[in-house]
Structure prediction request, 127 residues.
Amino acid sequence: MKALIISILCLGVLVAIWTAFDSYSDARLDGYIYEINKLVMPAVEREDWESARAAFDRVSDDWHKYRKISTFFFDRRLLNETDYSIARAKYYIKAEDLSNSSGELASLKEQLTFFHSNESFNLANIF
Prediction:
């Protein structure tokens, strides 16, 4: 009976930690998507490359801080793909390439949306 109670408590701790991270992750990913939609994409479309670069650098720097924590919870392959997409978007913005930067930003936005929904703690993702 003692082992059962300890197992249930351990499972409860794991679920609580995952739920707290899920809430934290949801806020961060929504923030990245918002910044891409409201700050970076409009600046790219206006061809205001300095503003686009500054806004995207904030997203990129914040992503790298978030990534350190998320490696414990998410699939490393998905994290790496997002890193690659960020690197490409950063380069396209630096090169002032309108079509490629807007396409890569749209792809990154969808990738971040999929990223969270694919890794959320729910029954569909468990089974």
About this structure: The two ends are 28 Å apart (CA to CA). The chain has a mean pLDDT of 89. The helical segments are 2-45, 49-70, 76-94, 98-119, 123-126.
